[in-house]
């Protein structure tokens, strides 16, 4: 996700600190894992109730595949959709529930081909049908309405709301971290539950709909453009994107052979498109440190927003100078290893995504004409106490301050300290090995910390607890 530029953010925290203080080893077994011929085996998850946002998501549902057919009418501001969800029940129950925004009305529902009753409890869609633990089912829904974004648990202006956004002229885009996918489809909206996606989008021509993965087809008929997208790797719901509008596509291929596409509005400033096209070189730089890119395609869609998001294989970027800058492009690509290939099973673990990608971004900047990395680290260290006082430690932050600088910069400084302790070879070997060790898995700090100790042969629990859970700044090595 996009974040404020380091110097500005840390200076702001340092100034605000007095006022704010006055105011206030092995991966887990995947249950029900099927035989290798099971096309959804990689999406079998161990869903959890979130420790910070327990009202979103249901651990009783393990989503395996979402098939979404979306038709957007920009004049009426209406979404008409058909959804088929293949899922595994994780418990035996008389009913199950999904998250679905209240403005969307379900007009038809079947479970395994039979009509089924659904009821609304706020944003919860309750399906009144019995399910048995580990059994697989297919839920089909027709629904329609005017999607509305949902309030975000954050003090950041650029993510005041999440989910589906509509511009004054009817274009749409989605960003939904830590939740908000439910604003436009019925979903188990939690990062512990990864699933496959097929998404079709219909919009009036010459507009086009963009989503994740490979563009399977694009057709135009009777004034309507229909695109079909296939995501061949499981994704968490917050990493799914849909954007509609008049978008032009530019295509190229990285040195390693990854197809890259840029979906941009016709009036995008040439400099911003040029910034996006650092992607092939950035991808090569990251592959040298992290290993082969873990997905088959990479894309970018520029929308009328103020933030940016590492949506899987199709990065969503707001149309401003910072969000379309080269450092942000590098940051969001890096998330495809840290966050997308391996991600958090609980939102208290978002530091796992953001700390390493921020460190990689700052390292890239230092090598490409930016400030020396140690100068950046010294500045972060100077602002560490203010950041902890305002938003909390990186792994025990204030739930109302999601996405603040503490989850980005403080873990980045932690990694820099560990790099000095371990040495270059051991540190970068560790950084490279982790995503591949937990490919397509959502995990937690206990698993990560145990793996780090085993991988490095070093006792790290005290170090990690101090940096990630401590209320005070840990000792920092002198600048060098």
Automatic annotation (TrEMBL):
Segments of skewed composition (Low complexity): 161-171
Signal peptide: 1-21
EC number(s) given by UniProt: 3.4.11.2
Start and end residues of each Aminopeptidase N-like N-terminal domain: 64-239
Highest taxon listed in the record's lineage: Bacteria
InterPro entries with a match to the protein in the record: Aminopeptidase_N-like_N (IPR045357), Aminopeptidase_N-like_N_sf (IPR042097), M1_LTA4H (IPR034015), Peptidase_M1_dom (IPR014782), Peptidase_M4/M1_CTD_sf (IPR027268)
SUPFAM superfamilies: Leukotriene A4 hydrolase N-terminal domain, Metalloproteases ('zincins'), catalytic domain
All residue ranges annotated as the Peptidase M1 membrane alanine aminopeptidase domain in the record: 282-467
Pfam families to which the protein is assigned, alphabetical: Peptidase_M1, Peptidase_M1_N
Coiled-coil boundaries: none
PROSITE patterns registered for this protein in UniProt: PROKAR_LIPOPROTEIN
Transmembrane segments: none
GO molecular function terms listed in the Swiss-Prot or TrEMBL record: alanyl aminopeptidase activity
Region (Disordered): 145-171
Keyword set includes Hydrolase: yes
Claim: Hydrolase is one of the keywords in the record: yes
CDD domains reported for this sequence: M1_APN_like
Keywords: Aminopeptidase, Hydrolase, Protease, Signal
Name of the molecule in the record: Aminopeptidase N
Organism lineage string: Bacteria, Bacillati, Actinomycetota, Actinomycetes, Propionibacteriales
Gene label: pepN_4
């Amino acid at each position: 996700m996009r974040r404020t530029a380091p110097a500005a953010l840390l200076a702001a925290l340092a100034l605000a600190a007095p006022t704010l203080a006055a105011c206030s080893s092995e991966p887990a077994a995947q249950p029900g894992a099927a035989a290798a011929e099971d096309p959804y085996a990689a999406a079998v998850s161990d869903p959890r109730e979130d420790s910070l946002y327990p009202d979103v998501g249901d651990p009783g549902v393990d989503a395996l595949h979402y098939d979404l057919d979306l038709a957007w009418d920009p004049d009426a501001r209406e979404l008409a959709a058909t959804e088929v969800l293949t899922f595994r029940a994780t418990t035996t129950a008389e009913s199950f529930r999904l998250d679905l925004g209240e403005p969307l009305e379900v007009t038809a529902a079947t479970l395994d081909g039979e009509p089924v009753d659904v009821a609304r409890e706020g944003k919860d869609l309750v399906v009144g049908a019995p399910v048995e633990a580990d059994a697989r089912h297919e839920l089909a829904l027709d629904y329609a309405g005017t999607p509305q974004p949902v309030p975000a648990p954050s003090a950041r202006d650029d993510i005041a709301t999440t989910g589906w956004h509509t511009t004054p002229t009817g274009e749409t885009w989605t960003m939904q971290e830590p939740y908000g996918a439910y604003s436009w489809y019925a979903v188990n909206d939690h990062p512990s539950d990864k699933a496959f996606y097929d998404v079709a989008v219909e919009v009036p021509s010459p507009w086009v709909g963009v989503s994740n993965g490979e563009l399977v087809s694009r057709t135009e008929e009777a004034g309507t453009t229909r695109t079909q997208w296939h995501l061949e790797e499981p994704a968490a719901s917050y990493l799914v994107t849909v954007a509609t509008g008049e978008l032009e596509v530019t295509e190229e291929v990285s040195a390693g052979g990854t197809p890259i596409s840029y979906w941009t509005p016709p009036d995008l400033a040439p400099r911003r498109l040029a910034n996006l096209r650092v992607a092939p070189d950035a991808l090569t730089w990251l592959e040298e440190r992290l290993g082969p890119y873990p997905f088959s395609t990479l894309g970018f869609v520029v929308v009328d927003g103020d933030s940016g998001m590492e949506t899987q294989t199709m990065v969503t970027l707001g149309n401003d100078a910072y969000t379309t800058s080269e450092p942000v492009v590098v940051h969001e690509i890096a998330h495809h290893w840290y966050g997308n290939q391996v991600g958090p099973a609980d939102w208290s673990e978002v530091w796992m995504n953001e700390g390493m990608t921020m460190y990689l971004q700052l390292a890239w900047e230092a090598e490409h004409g930016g400030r020396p990395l140690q100068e950046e680290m010294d500045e972060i260290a100077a602002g560490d106490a203010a950041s902890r006082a305002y938003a909390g430690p990186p792994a025990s932050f204030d739930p109302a301050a999601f996405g603040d600088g503490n989850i980005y910069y403080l873990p980045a400084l932690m990694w820099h300290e560990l790099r000095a302790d371990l040495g270059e070879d051991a540190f970068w070997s560790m950084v490279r090995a982790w995503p591949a060790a937990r490919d397509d898995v959502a995990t937690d700090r206990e698993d990560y910390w145990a793996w780090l100790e085993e991988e490095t042969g070093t006792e790290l629990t005290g170090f990690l607890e101090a940096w990630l859970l401590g209320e005070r700044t840990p000792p920092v090595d002198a600048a060098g």
